[in-house]
Amino acid sequence: VRAFIRFHGVRHPATLGSSEVEAFLSWLANERKVSVSTHRQALAALLFFYGKVL
After folding, report:
1. What is the rounded CA–CA span in Å between residue 31 and residue 13?
2. Each residue of 3-53: pLDDT tens digit?
3. What residue spans define the domains of the chain?
4. Global model pTM greater than 0.85
5. CATH of 2-53 among 1.10.275.10, 3.10.320.10, 3.40.50.360, 1.10.150.130
6. Could you tell me which of 17, 27, 28, 20 has the C-alpha nearest to residue 54?
């Protein structure tokens, strides 16, 4: 979640939507070349964060 917030210039997560989540996950896959399991873990963390925390 910290990397997601930093990726978007330290904006508050409540101001970020699905397009920003999609951009972050695309960046992880295409630029950082993370493994599938890391990509899924990032998605799960963001789903939990937006579903349970915010």
Report:
1. 22
2. 999 999 999 999 999 999 999 999 999 999 999 999 999 999 999 999 999
3. 2-53
4. yes
5. 1.10.150.130
6. 17
